[in-house]
Each structure stands twice: as C-alpha cells, then as structure tokens.
Amino acid sequence: MQERKEKIKGFLAQYFRSRALEDEEDIFALGFVNSLLAMQLVNFVEKEFGVTIDDEDLDFENFRTISNIDALIERKVSSPAEA
User: Fold this and answer.
1) 14, 39, 12, 45: which is closest to 26 by C-alpha?
2) CA 51 to chain centroid
3) 20-75 pLDDT per residue, tens
4) Alpha helices in 2-59 (DSSP H)
5) What is the pLDDT of residue 81?
6) Please, is 44 exposed, middle or buried when counting C-beta atoms within 10 Å of its C-beta (0-12, 13-18, 19+)?
C-alpha cells in the first residue's frame, strides 16, 4: 500500500515539483491538474499497476487524492476479473 502511494507521488512529483504532496491532499483543488494530466494519470495507473480503468472508474473522487487513487487500485487488484 505505501509502496503504491510512493509510486503515485513519484509520478505526480513531475508536475508538482515545488510541493510535496500529502496522501489526503486534493490535487484538483490545488489547480495543477488539467484534462491532459488527468489522462496521463489514468494511463500511468493502468501501466504501472496492471489494472484497467473502466468508464465507471473515471470519477474525480477516484483520482482526487493519493489515498483515493491507491484505494481504486486496491479495489481493481482485489476484485476478480470479469469474463
């Protein structure tokens, strides 16, 4: 869990260079996230953690904080793949 959060922080650090993000900090409220970064974040999560982000997962709440992103990944890796 903590290792995942560190990987997410590492990815976001490219865009939030002047700020060390906390797990519960709202990255959208900070004003640095635009639609391009949001899609890059989705792509990063899929590739880095081997999950598929479905349309129903594309909710701001799932990506608002590092903890929320981690929780989404946990749900995706814990749920059995649908046939």
Assistant:
1) 12
2) 12
3) 899 999 999 988 788 889 999 999 999 999 999 999 999 999 999 999 999 999 99
4) 2-13, 35-49
5) 59
6) middle
What is the CB neighbour count within 10 angstroms for residue 82? 5
Q: What is d(CA 34, CA 36) in angstroms, rounded to the nearest whole number?
A: 6
Which domains are delineated in the chain? 2-78 (1.10.1200.10)
End-to-end CA distance of the chain: 27
Name which of 64, 39, 65 is nearest 53 in CA terms.
39
DSSP single-letter state for residue 65 = S
The answer to pTM > 0.85 is: yes
